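2 proteins. here.
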Amino acid sequence: MDRLAEFRKWKVQCLSKADLSRKGSVDEDVVELVQFLNMRDQFFTTSSCAGRILLLDGGINGFEVQKQNCCWLLVTHKPCVKDDVIVALKKANGDATLKFEPFVLHVQCRQLQDAQILHSVAIDSGFRNSGITVGKRGKTMLAVRSTHGLEVPLSHKGKLMVTEEYIDFLLNVANQKMEENKKRIERYIIFPCYSYMPRSSLKTLIHAIFSL
């Protein structure tokens, strides 16, 4: 099987699978971007998250958070308020940690040059931790990431270790990061008018759409 046929096979297999994420669907803020990429012959998305604020109860063996081994006390893709965190903290039995995780997107690309185009757009849009990997079978993956995350422990063995005033301060920081995250995503937003733009150059098209 040639490289392009194999890529098409991978794409069909990936897009036909059920969404196994906790949410079970693509986040609202990135639906248009994901749909746009998946409609192009050169790309398909393998995972995405628009960004979220989390409160995790990670057990009592220290503050290192392993999401697969902890209890999710709260998760939101929107700005968070203190009262919601205080209520969720009452359910904590171990070491609760407040996190903000910024937008992340994984895209498999047909060729390296296709990945380089999207990588350039990602860097220009503020996602400066983005990168490209090429596997042994020729799978070319682009990861769109940034570095403005947040992770702060709030409780230990179920006991709150900080004041409500400090929680309010942390949420202001997290919500500001969420707003900045949204602005960066907006540089990747797809408008209906894209179908009327010249398509002679994929790079020109993508920059015309994404560089707001």
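next one coming up
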Amino acid sequence: MKPVSRGDFPAQSSASLLSSLGSMGSTGAREDTEEPEDRVRIKSKLVSAWNSVKYGWSFTSKSRFNKRSPVVLLGHSYLLTNADEREAFHQAFTSVLWLTYRKGFSPLAGSTLTSDCGWGCMLRSGQMLLAQGLVHHLLPPGWTWSASYHATKDDLGIPPSRLLFRSYMSPAECPRARRRSLACSLLFGAGSGTEITHRLIVSWFVDHPCHPFGLHQLVEMGKGLGKQAGDWYGPAIASHIIRKAVAASKLTDLVVHVAQDCTVYKGDIVRLCERPRHEGPRGRAAPWKALILLVPVRLGGDALNPAYIDCVKKLLRLECCIGIIGGRPKHSLYFVGFQDDQLLYLDPHYSQSTVDISKEDFPLESFHCKSARKMPFSRMDPSCALGFYARGQRDFERMCVLVSVAMNSDKNKYPMFTFVEGQQSDEKDGECDTSSFFSESCTYSRARASKPGKAGQSSSTDEFVLL
């Protein structure tokens, strides 16, 4: 644990910190309703000091894996009794981008916050899901980080001597690398060129106002949804923030669609993804944009309904699934797989210093997790958002079939969500119903279950009606 410096407040609970700060000056002569600027600054520094202590721990404990049971990770299954598959699993897991709490970045607009410790975990989970979608979109299938074995030997017992390392592309090989342009990544399809693309994707998530998917941009997008820096974000709002951030970026061949009321209207997807062939440079753009589909759902009342566990497992087995943003109550996690009755996840609740990417070979180690962790399905918060990726129209049609089969394998259960023909006529494309954000879920009714072609009604009071 990092020691508290001379100017920092002694470590105590965050609740006592905030309560003591709230009582400061309550009997003074100042009658202003707003907090004085100096008090806000002091409060921010004290909370930052406490969060540095709370989230600065380096935990050494690791989850233990059953080597006789297969591990599923983002659509791929690994049998850990086999040394090669054990090595492949470790390499695949350490290649997933890990976005965590950061500290020391420039203040977020409209606040004095220079860290997201204690409140930004859902945005970080959303960043990880988006990053996985970008890896699918921009890197070759089966790509793994060439330096992913810089990690020390873990509980899976993989010897580092078996690793093959590939060198990074030098700046001379790509003169415009410092511009972090997308064009640079598209010039190279394999070898060290993939590392340029990897670094490019990472740079997009660095916390700076100019970066398309950094915390500054996501917080700015959240203002239109009634959220401010320091607020808690749920999976549904995080999904719409991701959609808005991608729409505002220069990724013209990728779109994000967020399902409303647990219904995916295929007509809306076609309208969003289809484009004339003359679009793009020299008229050679693909006729169909790639799609990231996000589906906010609620899988139970106060706790996860066990009836949905098998369905979640089947969805995580699909290669088109790019993970789930959810977690435990008030503790967001990014779920990427499972083993037996335990979920595999990446945890954003670890405070790290912001990274300066002005250097050509800026360090990447803090963006990749070295140890896989698990938790029981029973601890999963029922409010979550499912993520899927489809590169083209055929992939989308195939995804609809595979996901529908996975969700409807048991005829006695209602599906998590449905695919229906047509368009959602009562809402314009790209807009969202903010009234549903109070529940962060969708509410089922018997009428909707019997008529899946009609959208269900959201409720700001009843979070979920289980049938």
